[in-house]
Amino acid sequence: MTTERIVRIVAGFFILLSLSLGVQGSPLFHNSNWLWFTVFVGANLFQSGFTQFCPLEMILKKLGIKESLCR
What are the residues whose beta carbons fall under 8 Å from the beta carbon of 54, sequence distance 6 or more? Predict the structure, then answer.
């Protein structure tokens, strides 16, 4: 598995988790402030699309996970 796939999986999981904890209609609702975490993940994905800077990707590279299948 490559860093790109792991970043997408982790980001998707965090978005779904924070929505389930922050939306009042959810059976897992805890507090609406969890929606700020959704904003943080979305903003980080947005900026990384332009800047190619992603903290999780840097951590995964240091752990020795391959950047992509072509390299």
Answer: 7, 44, 48
